Structure formats: structure tokens, C-alpha cells
Amino acid sequence: MITLLTGDNSFENERALGKLVAEFDGVPERVDGDTLELKQVPDLLMGATLFANKRLVIIKNLSGNKTLWTGFSDWAHRLSPDVHLVLVEPKPDKRTKTYKDLQKIADIKESKLWGERDFLKAEQWVMSEAGQRGITLDKASARLLVERVGADQWQLSQALEKLAVAGPVSPQVVEALIEANPVENVFLLFEAALAGDGNRIKKMLQILETTEDPYRLLGLLGGQAVQLAVVAVADKPSAQVAGEIGVHPYALSKLAPAARKLGRSGAKKVVAAFAEADEGAKTSAADPWLLIERALVKVACV
């Protein structure tokens, strides 16, 4: 039997691998595919050993070993029924003969990395995962957790570990124990600008200067400005717009009140402020933090 664990979601791949290992009655054999040599392949794939009748052989990143990967499908067809071969390949070349042959004979489990479109899925996963870990977590807390952490399952899992010792979890507990990720910090900064809160802008920038790259921050703020403009010009509910542009509906719903207040002309000014800052960052030697602050102050005055 061959199982192929693939896709860029390393959390799901590792969890699937852990389940296979837990279900196997024995000691798995782990092999680094990058360093595997042809002379080792027959012993790995051709049946039982003196110490075990059934074997679980795990090979990671075999596709990085071009010589073996090219002809590996020939060996795969000769796999002993006593061997369960697990190949872990995050990004195999799907154009290769080996991959195409594996599609015919292997159990392929592909796990894709979650993005902004998957926030609802992440919230549901957090609720389920919390229950399995004995953590009392309501929907509001799960939503806030995903907002602060994002849809990265490794980081969500680590956040749940922190919450596991906190007893019943509330939104207040999440805010106290779980640090907001850069995207959430960007929204709070953008929100302060939309509210015209100059003092809050300065305080947040002072903190962000110690942790964030200014060019990345400027790009994220520009993205917020574009989303605001999309909501302002769209004659549709924000949830529908979110589906069309591939962002989380809740993220756009938070921008909707400001978009209605600013209207098309106001949203255009917000986009223009960040477009000017972006142009300045690309074509001048101006301090990027100063450019960001100027843009936010302009938004605060719209």
C-alpha cells in the first residue's frame, strides 16, 4: 500500500502522518529521500525483515532526489504487500511520470494551506480542536482567536495550548493571552486612522516600528484601503463582495460602516493617500515610517 501526503499545509500532513504512525503496531522506518541511494531501495520496499512481518516505511522529500524520483514508479509497482509506504511530498512536480503513476496506485491525501477565504473553516476547526483538547471555547472567542492569529493551523494550535491552562475561555481571555498577528495589528491601525484618532496612530506606530517591516506594513495598509474602496463602490452586501474578491466576510463587514460614511469620494482619497506613500517608498529615499504616518494622518483627516 502506498500513501502520498502532499500539499503545502504541513500541519495537516504531519497530523495525517502521526495518525498512520499511531495506528501501526510497530516501529516505523523513516528515510530522508534527499539522501536515499538506489542500492537501499530494494531492502526498503521488498518485504518483511527478521524483526517485523509488517513494515511502515516513511520517505520524505523523495522528489528532491531527481535520480531516484524519475524511475521510482517502477519500484512502486513492485512494492511488497507487507510494506505500507508513505511518501511525504509537499510540492511534487505533478508533470512527472512518477507522480502520474502514483495517482493510479496510491492513496493521495492533499492538504492545502488555508488563507483568508478559509477563516470560517478555521473557526470551525478551532471549535472542534478545542473540544478535543477539553477547552471550553464559545463561537465569539473562536472568531476572535482566528482574527488575532490568522488561519495558520500551527499558530492556532500553539494559541490553543496557551488557552488550555486558562480555564473557560472568553473574548477577554483571548485578548489578554493571545498576541495579535501583523494583519490584525494593521487593521487596528487602519481603524484608528478611519476614526481620526491621531494619538492612537502615533502610539501604535511606535510599537510597530520595533516589530514590523515598514514596506510590508505599507503593503498591508494599502490592501486595507483597496478593500475599503471595493466596499464603498459595490452595490452589494459585504458578504457577497468578500466571496468575489477572496477575503473573509467578517473582515469586510468591519470596513462597511466606514465605507458607507466615506462614500466613493472619501474612499478614493484614502486609496490615493496610500498610493502616494507607496510611490514615495519606491522612488525616494524618504523614511518609510514617515510616509506611513503621513498617509494615516491624511486618512484621519478625510
Round the Cα radius of gyration to an integer and report it.
Answer: 25 Å
Percentage of β-strand residues: 5-15%
Query: pLDDT average, as an integer?
Result: 89
Number of strands: 5
Molecular shape:
elongated
Count of alpha/pi helices: 14
CATH class of the largest domain: Mainly Alpha
CATH architecture type of the largest domain: Up-down Bundle
The biggest beta sheet reads:
5 strands, parallel
Order of helices and strands: EHEHEHEHEHHHHHHHHHH
Structure, explained:
- With 302 residues, this protein is of the alpha/beta class.
- The chain is built from 14 helices and 5 strands.
- Strands 2-3-4-1-5 form a 5-stranded parallel sheet, sandwiched between helices.
Q: Which short descriptors sum up this protein?
A:
3 domains; 9% strand; Rossmann fold; 5 strands; 302 residues; five-stranded parallel sheet; alpha/beta; Helicase, Ruva Protein, domain 3; 14 helices; Zinc Finger, Delta Prime, domain 3
Please write out the topology.
Layout: E1 2-6, H1 10-23, E2 29-32, H2 41-45, E3 55-60, H3 66-76, E4 83-89, H4 97-105, E5 107-110, H5 119-132, H6 139-149, H7 153-163, H8 171-177, H9 182-194, H10 198-208, H11 214-233, H12 238-245, H13 249-283, H14 288-300
Parallel strand pairs: 1-4, 1-5, 2-3, 3-4
Helix pairs in contact: 3-4, 5-6, 5-7, 6-8, 9-10, 9-11, 9-14, 10-14, 11-13, 12-13, 13-14
